[in-house]
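Thread amino acids onto this structure.
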């Protein structure tokens, strides 16, 4: 087509410049495209903040009256642009686990805004949780809305890192000055099946150039040639590899050695092999060091901590409660026969309670003896082998006295409280089956763990396998940081939260909060 057919130039001009017609046409098209781009509206920024701290709150849902929903990113931001809903009044309902917006006369919690291109509005929410939600550690779109709004994010990869969209249960440790992170099953963008053999990453410690844990964690994933987080523990055998009990021990060479226990799993939750592994820092791979016999009385599981008892160091593992230990050296860690459990069960007859001459229950560290569990204790009470007031797992709500069934826990010694501090997940909670998180403390790591205060709640959503980070603690332990796996799995919730689901979320807990008063 000649330009004169469009009425732009006379035919003679077009004939003379026929050779340049295509170039002119492309130039006109470029101008049109540029004009169209310049007219693209900027999003309206909605920031949700904690009314106590002024900090942006992640994982808050805003929903319009036609059920379009938006979830705040790590900065508490939503980048809103909806053709037809700009420059008019739009109502947004507001809700989020452990936070709430004031209700109006009809009991509706939300706010009316008039979105304008390039404008901004702030919504304040009241924190019900004692712990403060800080940010999501893993997954895609951590700062999606911040990026769409042209705002700076504190991490290098604010929207996608290692092509990771979802990650289960974290374990980690500081080895030779580097903070290592490892996760369970991991989702990818390109296919529903991802990495089932322990992806990993590193980050700098806060005092060595890393981010303040109040701000975030800047991960550097170990990736394969395709850019996706690579396996670090692709051990032989069918099914996924899961890592537990990661702890750093000194070797005969004077260097740190990162040790862990592993299981091989098939048919979803069928564990068919146990053993021990050691991390090779040069190859970023876990190497098998021992395969343990099956059907042993106990195996290490859960989050570990090193404990000094009368000058001897032990690795103590917390599952339901801290109740399995082994001497803190590599040789003992590799030998399953060296592990002990804190239990009232008789070593040679684990179906019987050990009692002293007066008939009182006796607990102690015993090799090759199962630890007491909440379910086993319940069965023994029903069978008449234990009286109701003889239970050794006696965690309870500090206010109501209601028993709490522990699921998984994580502990550390706390200089601020001069006690052992524990973050423990409840099984079968009121608001969610695996989403209620409690704080408890004890004089000894073996307890008794009694009074607890709920610090995080989730509405029909899971938050399992919590992890306390001792290297992040501030002010002599007054400020603690912990994370867990936020997922709809096991919750009965059929509406997973976009981007957040099946990922790690970090919380901050201030132990000076008066609500954390526990009975003596």
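Threaded sequence (520 positions):
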């Amino acid at each position: 087509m000649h330009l004169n057919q469009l009425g732009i130039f006379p035919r003679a001009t077009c004939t003379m410049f026929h050779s340049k017609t295509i170039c002119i046409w492309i130039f006109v098209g470029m101008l049109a495209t540029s004009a169209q781009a310049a007219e693209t509206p900027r999003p309206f920024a909605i920031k949700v903040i904690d009314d106590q701290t002024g900090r942006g709150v992640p994982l808050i849902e805003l929903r319009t009256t036609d059920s379009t929903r938006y979830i705040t990113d790590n900065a508490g931001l939503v980048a809103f642009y909806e053709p037809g809903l700009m420059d008019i009044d739009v109502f947004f309902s507001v809700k989020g686990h452990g936070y709430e917006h004031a209700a109006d006369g009809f009991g509706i919690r939300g706010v009316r805004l008039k979105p304008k291109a390039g404008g901004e509005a702030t919504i304040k929410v009241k924190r019900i949780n004692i712990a403060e939600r800080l940010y999501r550690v893993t997954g895609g779109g951590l700062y999606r809305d911040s990026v769409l709004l042209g705002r700076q994010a504190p991490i290098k990869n604010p929207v996608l890192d290692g092509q990771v969209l979802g990650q289960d249960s974290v374990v980690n440790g500081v080895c030779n000055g580097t903070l290592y992170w490892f996760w369970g099953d991991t989702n990818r963008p390109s296919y529903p099946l991802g990495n089932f053999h322990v992806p990993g990453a590193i980050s700098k410690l806060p005092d060595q150039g890393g981010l303040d844990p109040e701000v975030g964690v800047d991960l550097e994933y170990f990736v394969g040639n395709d850019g996706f987080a690579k396996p670090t523990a692709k051990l032989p055998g069918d099914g996924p590899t899961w890592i537990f009990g990661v702890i750093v021990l000194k070797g005969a060479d004077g260097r740190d050695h990162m040790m862990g226990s592993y299981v091989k799993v098939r048919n979803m939750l069928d564990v068919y092999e146990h053993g021990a592994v050691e991390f090779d820092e040069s190859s970023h791979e876990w190497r098998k060091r021992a395969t343990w016999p099956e059907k042993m009385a106990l195996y290490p599981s859960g989050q570990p901590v090193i404990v000094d008892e009368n000058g001897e160091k032990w690795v103590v593992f917390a599952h339901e409660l801290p109740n399995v230990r082994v001497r803190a050296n590599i040789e003992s860690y590799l030998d399953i026969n060296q592990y002990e459990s804190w239990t009232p069960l008789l070593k040679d007859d684990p179906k019987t309670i050990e009692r002293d001459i007066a008939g009182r229950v006796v607990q102690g560290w015993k090799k090759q003896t199962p630890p007491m569990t909440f379910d086993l204790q319940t069965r023994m009470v029903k069978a008449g082998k234990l009286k109701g007031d003889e239970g050794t797992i006696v965690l309870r709500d500090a206010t109501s006295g209601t028993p709490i069934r522990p699921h998984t826990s994580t502990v550390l010694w706390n200089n601020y409280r001069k006690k052992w501090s524990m973050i423990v997940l409840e099984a079968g909670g009121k608001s969610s089956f695996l989403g209620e998180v409690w704080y408890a403390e004890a004089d000894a790591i073996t307890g008794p763990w009694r009074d607890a205060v709920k610090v995080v709640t989730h509405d029909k959503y899971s938050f399992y396998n919590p992890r306390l980070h001792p290297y992040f603690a501030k002010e002599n332990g007054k400020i603690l940081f912990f994370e867990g796996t936020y997922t709809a799995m096991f919750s009965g919730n059929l509406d997973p939260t976009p981007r957040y689901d099946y990922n790690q979320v970090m919380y901050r807990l201030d132990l000076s909060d008066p609500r954390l008063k526990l009975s003596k």
